[in-house]
Specification:
single chain; about 250 residues; mainly beta; Lipocalin; five-stranded antiparallel beta sheet; about 60% strand; elongated
């Protein structure tokens, strides 16, 4: 009788081993969706809307925090396991935010965990309210030869002059990139994550710093007439090709 049971036990053990990855994968998939809830930070309740989705084997997501003027900001450093999720929130648009969230499933359609920001930790409870609603971030496009190269301009903020240099670089199918430098009391090189050309309209965006430039190319005047944007501040900024030194 004992020998007759061995094959059955072995078969059962193999079946369990085969089932474990499937169960883990399904558990991880439970994290996909729109999650809404709030974090109890000192003195106020902070509403969060988190969207998580798995595409081509990788997790993507975004967060909306109405109280901090954060809308559809892409999540970073997303890690999802069978029953836990963690990610970072870094927004430079509107009100700058650098935070993190780690949560675990507590029941069907519910997560709880910690919201960490500026060294403070607050408990958070999230409820799954539907499918994810992630806005796909725009991608950089190639730019024309008329735009490629170096442009310079000046603007004034709080009574101090700022000198701007934007060098636009084509990268073929990967789209363009740019070196974005601002010189005031100090020199700041901005990380650029988006360069787009639509007709004669140019957009250069440094999402992490909340700084962007939008301008329209005037081929006849050989200039880009546009606006320097830093959070809620918008200032006129006209760019020209640097004068060559004889």
């Amino acid at each position: 009788m004992i020998e007759s049971r061995v094959p059955s036990l072995n078969a059962l053990f193999c079946a369990i081993c085969l089932a474990i990855p499937t169960l883990s994968a399904r558990a991880g998939e439970e994290m996909a969706g729109r999650w809404e809830g709030s974090a109890q930070i000192p003195g106020r309740e902070l509403t969060l809307i988190v969207d998580l989705s798995k595409e081509s084997g990788a997790w993507i997501g975004s967060v909306t925090i109405p109280g901090l003027d954060v809308k559809g900001t892409p999540l970073k450093d997303i890690v999802v396991t069978a029953s836990e999720a963690s990610f970072a929130i870094k927004s430079g648009s509107g009100r700058s935010l650098d935070a993190a969230l780690k949560a675990h499933l507590t029941g069907q359609g519910m997560m709880s965990g910690d919201f960490v920001q500026a060294g403070n930790t607050a408990p958070i409870v999230l409820k799954q309210t539907g499918p994810p609603q992630i806005e796909v971030a725009p991608r950089s496009t190639p730019i024309s030869q008329e735009l490629a190269g170096e442009w310079k301009g000046d603007y004034e903020m709080f009574g101090s002059a700022r000198h701007v240099t934007i060098k636009l670089i084509n990268r073929g199918a990967e789209g363009a990139t740019a070196n974005f430098e601002i010189v005031g009391k100090k020199t700041t090189n901005l990380p650029v994550d988006l360069v787009r050309q639509e007709g004669d309209l140019l957009t250069v965006d440094s999402h992490d710093t909340g700084i962007s430039y939008e301008g329209r190319l005037n081929k006849e005047a050989a200039e880009i007439k546009g606006t320097f944007i830093q959070g809620p501040i918008e200032l006129p900024l006209i760019l020209h090709r640097p004068k060559s030194i004889p």
